[in-house]
Design a protein that fits this description.
This protein is an all-alpha fold.
Length: about 280
């Protein structure tokens, strides 16, 4: 009976959660980001809560390795990719589509923050539990047969917060949140800024239907900037994951003695006496 229940969770529940969760951005790509998804935000919230519950159940986690690989890569990481590739709105329809998309992404990011920060820090990944970042790295990135889930997730989180490096530490050719280059002539002098149509010298303002975004509203690739409240959630997920790495430290007695000696030296108490032979 327990085996049948586990099989239902592995084959049916996880697949249903993944497919239904991805429906929130159905029919949305770079050419058409107007159509909303199939599911409501309330359903999306329940999906994220269920995923968080499954992950925090350490007895189930070891049986759902393949499922969580698909969930973190195909749901959370894909949501981050779509977040930083939203087109800057030029009409009211696209603007309201971005608002609906941001509301769904906010729910997903709040779930990701909970997963990255909430866990029993008394144990480590070697004891079957630990921080999410180190657990993902141990389960997937250290396995040559699986994808780099931890690195890919952290890279996308960093890119959404404005990082200019890739997973190898190299500078990106075009930064995700890089400022648009200031136009200059070949001799290095700034290019004159054209007069605005609504300038007092040009008479009354001219109404145009085309919306031209400012330099601060778009990235170097032409996408919009990630909204500040979503960027803050990405930063919280990064900080929470990094804090868990240091919180899970269980040093040996020798390491504790060495740390105490270093603290004594930094405090000016003098060098510790050499160990007796």
């Amino acid at each position: 009976e327990d085996r049948s229940l586990l099989q239902i969770i592995q084959d049916d529940l996880c697949l249903a959660l993944l497919m239904t969760g991805q429906a929130v951005w159905a029919y949305q790509d770079n050419s058409n980001q107007i159509a909303p998804g199939f599911i409501s935000l309330e359903v999306l919230s329940e999906i994220c809560s269920t995923l968080s519950t499954l992950w925090n159940s350490t007895s189930l986690r070891k049986h759902l390795v393949s499922q969580f690989e698909s969930i973190f890569s195909g749901f959370y990481q894909r949501a981050l990719v779509l977040l930083r590739k939203r087109i800057n709105p030029n009409d009211s329809i696209t603007f309201h589509s971005n608002l609906y998309f941001d509301a769904g992404i906010e729910i997903i990011l709040e779930s990701l923050v909970d997963i990255m920060t909430l866990h029993d820090h008394r144990l480590t990944v070697a004891h079957g539990n630990g921080g999410t970042l180190e657990t993902l790295f141990a389960f997937f990135d250290c396995n040559i047969k699986r994808s780099d889930v931890a690195v890919g997730l952290m890279v996308e989180l960093c890119r959404c917060t404005g990082s200019k490096v890739d997973e190898e530490g190299d500078i990106l050719v075009a930064s995700v949140h890089g400022d648009l280059p200031t136009p200059h002539n070949t001799d290095g002098t700034p290019t004159p800024v054209p007069e605005r149509p609504d300038s007092p010298m040009n008479g009354p303002p001219i109404e145009t239907e085309e919306f031209v975004p400012s330099n601060d509203a778009v990235t170097a690739e032409g996408y919009r900037q990630v909204p500040p409240h979503l960027r803050e959630l990405c930063a919280e997920a990064i900080i929470g994951g990094m804090k868990c790495l240091f919180r899970d430290d269980h040093p040996s007695d020798q390491t504790k003695t060495e740390r105490h000696n270093r603290q004594s030296i930094m405090a000016g108490d003098g060098a510790p006496p050499p160990p007796s032979l």
